Amino acid sequence: MKMGFEITIEHGDALDFKADVLMLKYAKSFYGLDAIVQKKLRAERGKVYEPEPDTYALVPSPQNMPYQWILIVGTGSLHQLKYPALRDLGRNMLEALYRESVDVHSAATTFHNVNSGVPIDEVEAFRSILLGFADAVGAATVPPSLKRITFVEQDEHRANLMREALEKFLPPGTARALSTMTQSHSSFDDTFIKPLATEETPHVFVAMPFADDFDDQYYLAIRPAITEHKILCIRLDQAESAFTGDIMEQVKERIRTAKLVVAVLDGNNPNVYLEVGYAWGVGTPTVLILHENETPPFDVQGARLIKYNKIYRLKEQIAQELKLLL
Predict the structure, then answer these.
(1) How would you class 86 by CB atoms within 10 Å of its CB: exposed for 0-12, middle for 13-18, buried for 19 or more?
(2) Reported confidence tier of residue 24, pLDDT bands at 50, 70, 90
């Protein structure tokens, strides 16, 4: 019996995307799209759904949403939702639909634990979810009717990045459609089936302001220059409120263990300077980036400083520094 499905990525709003089921998580609290949908469910039914880790709730969709079902899978808290837990989430999503025997042809979801303040590599997080899907396929716990899973992403830069990753992980053709006969994963690219990242996996930590204005610097220059070295690129992609409790401890650990820290000083963001100062304190090398029209609030001339004016040149400048440092 063959149960194949296609994986696609769409740039848009999951609240407007049409599919049979929207697959979400409950990570001990409500965040992002998960929170918006829970609010709609509460408004319509007077209750929220808070499944325990590794359990789930499958409920009819609110009437004003383009889905038949909402699947909510319980996980640990956000700071626990690292690569192994994301792999479990992917598997649990498909196994829940299989157990419920719902007639699902299309499913939608988002890229989980990005924009969460948890310092992980977003492509590696995506790969973890895909590996979870493959685990469910290998165990034959996928709804037989399922034909497509679509990741819906509002950020165009991230959507394009994940499309490139998907093309690499699952090349077009037979590998793009996961089935119960995975040929021992022989049709998958080696970068897809390699072991999950751990705390010891080499990485570069990127410190930068959390604002759309800096997406070009990150997605078009910094990240590609780093990942060309086959190393994870970790960014804290959250607002000021992320600098508390467990998240801050994770940030400090990621800086301590990083090969180096790349920091964007544009805008004189205090959190960026906090991260740079901590990197200096623990001896992690830094590469500082500053637009030529800006002036830092203190003297950084003794540090490695890249002044840039064009994004394409910035990528080349970073690449040259990384050749020396990595």
Answers:
(1) buried
(2) very high
